């Protein structure tokens, strides 16, 4: 029994590790694809070559992030057959077609137009090239739609029946795809992707503004990024609140864990800001809380009753400490994003957006915040669903393959080593690209193949007589 438990834990850790690596790349590429479409559209509209230079700068970064997302996604799909074969067998009639639709629509659309977007502007003309860029952006959004439909169905399953073999058989595809949590989770994820990209673009712009003092390329990307943060952050907070209310309706145990409510509160529940959840003793130690605020947020009434985990059987409770803290990391970073957006609006109003070093330092520090918030959100969602893989119907303990712990441990160690080598090198390369702007002639000569993605400085003797490289 202990070997089985260890194997289950290791299989869960392996999937958590691979999905954590995978999700950061789509979270970046979804927003970056839309940003590229905006840049090229502005270039076609305003005929300002600055937008084209920024397009070429971010195009290379997008290609690398997209490739790493594809590779990490392929690895994840194999795990359904290795570590989670029972889940694949039981849920395959529902999950399989949805994943297939994602490949047939979104991935083929992205892959079909990606080459044109990366290499075809001089061959197909600006109009068709812009169409290709739009199709790549649309493809990333369609991909997110199918993946979120799959995961949302696992959170709030409907539209199925269970046959004699214990398999989930589709009965109503519309109900499966448009399940109760799908619209909220799709909006929340897409907004998170846009915020993640805006924070990265803003951090890169801030880095160059601090180093170069109002470089026009850095100024433009920073201004666009801060505008996106200022608009998207408050919308994301509203979407998150609606998503939370939907989760309370369909997965109350998850919200109980997020709030740290071990006990029911018939006359109004406090909002626990911080504390140490003690699942064994069923309490939050050293809690710092605001009376009645949780009732106000969840039920819009100060004295509204709020159910606690004392209404849930112990073996059906999610791991409270992980969900409690991951939720607070996500919300805390969301508040910082809102603060950054408001701070940028203040400097935009004053006309000092590109000359405010403390704003630039704040934006630079917030560069990785979107990735961390996305990971914290997914941890909240997935760990909060436990002990189920398909909420209310299929337990995680009943979903895994019958393989021993040493085999899972070996593959987990191999994944960790290979992932850190491969994706670590890719991430390091992306960071190197971000440290340079298109007009860096010295770095262009050193980079070799990267010259085609750069804009040489005509004043530099090494670039006299060369074309603009686009």
From TrEMBL:
Q: Which UniProt keywords apply?
A: Cell membrane, Electron transport, Heme, Iron, Membrane, Metal-binding, Oxidoreductase, Transmembrane, Transmembrane helix, Transport
> Could you tell me the membrane topology recorded for this protein?
Multi-pass membrane protein
Enzyme class comes to: oxidoreductase
| Compartments where found | Cell inner membrane; Cell membrane
InterPro entries in the record = Cyt-d_ubiquinol_oxidase_su_1, MFS_trans_sf
Q: What's this protein's family per the entry?
A: Belongs to the cytochrome ubiquinol oxidase subunit 1 family.
Protein name, as recorded: Cytochrome d ubiquinol oxidase subunit I
Species name for this entry?
A: Gellertiella hungarica
């Amino acid at each position: 029994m202990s070997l089985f438990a260890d194997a289950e834990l290791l299989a869960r850790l392996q999937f958590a590790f691979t999905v954590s690596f995978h999700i950061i790349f789509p979270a970046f590429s979804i927003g970056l694809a839309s940003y590229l479409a905006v840049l090229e559209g502005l270039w076609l509209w305003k005929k300002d070559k600055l937008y084209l230079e920024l397009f070429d700068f971010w195009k290379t970064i997008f290609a690398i992030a997209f490739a790493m997302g594809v590779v990490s996604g392929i690895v994840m799909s194999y795990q359904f057959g290795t570590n989670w074969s029972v889940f694949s067998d039981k849920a395959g009639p529902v999950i399989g077609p949805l994943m297939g639709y994602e490949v047939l629509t979104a991935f083929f659309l992205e892959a079909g137009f990606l080459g044109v977007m990366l290499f075809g502007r001089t061959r197909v003309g600006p109009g068709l090239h812009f169409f290709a860029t739009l199709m790549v952006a649309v493809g990333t959004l369609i991909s997110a739609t199918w993946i979120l439909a799959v995961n949302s169905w696992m959170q709030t399953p409907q539209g199925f029946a269970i046959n004699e073999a214990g398999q989930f058989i589709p009965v109503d595809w519309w109900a499966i795809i448009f399940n109760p949590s799908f619209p909220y989770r799709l909006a929340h994820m897409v907004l998170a992707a846009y915020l993640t990209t805006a924070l990265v673009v803003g951090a890169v712009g801030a880095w160059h503004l601090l180093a170069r003092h109002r470089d026009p390329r850095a100024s433009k990307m920073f201004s666009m990024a801060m505008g996106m943060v200022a608009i998207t952050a408050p919308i994301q907070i509203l979407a998150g609140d609606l998503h939370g209310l939907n989760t309370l309706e369909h997965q109350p145990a998850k919200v109980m864990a997020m709030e740290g409510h071990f006990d029911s509160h018939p006359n109004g529940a406090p909002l626990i800001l911080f504390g140490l959840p003690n699942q064994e003793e069923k309490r939050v130690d050293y809690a710092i809380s605001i009376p009645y605020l949780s009732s106000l947020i969840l039920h819009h009434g100060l004295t509204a009753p709020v159910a606690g985990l004392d209404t849930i059987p112990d073996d059906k409770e999610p791991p409270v400490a992980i969900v409690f803290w991951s939720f607070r990391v996500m919300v805390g970073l969301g508040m910082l994003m809102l603060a950054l957006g408001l701070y940028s609006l203040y400097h935009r109003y004053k006309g000092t957006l590109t000359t405010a070093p403390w704003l630039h330092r704040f934006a630079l520090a917030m560069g990785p915040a979107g990735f961390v918030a996305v990971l914290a959100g997914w941890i909240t969602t997935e760990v909060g669903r436990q002990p189920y893989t398909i909420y209310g119907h299929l337990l995680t303990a009943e979903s895994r393959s019958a393989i021993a712990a040493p085999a899972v441990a070996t593959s987990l160690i191999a994944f960790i080593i290979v992932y850190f080598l491969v994706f670590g090198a890719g991430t390091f390369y992306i960071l190197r690209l971000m440290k340079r702007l298109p007009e860096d002639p010295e770095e262009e000569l050193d980079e070799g193949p990267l010259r085609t993605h750069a804009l040489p400085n005509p004043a530099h003797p090494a670039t006299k007589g060369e074309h603009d490289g686009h």
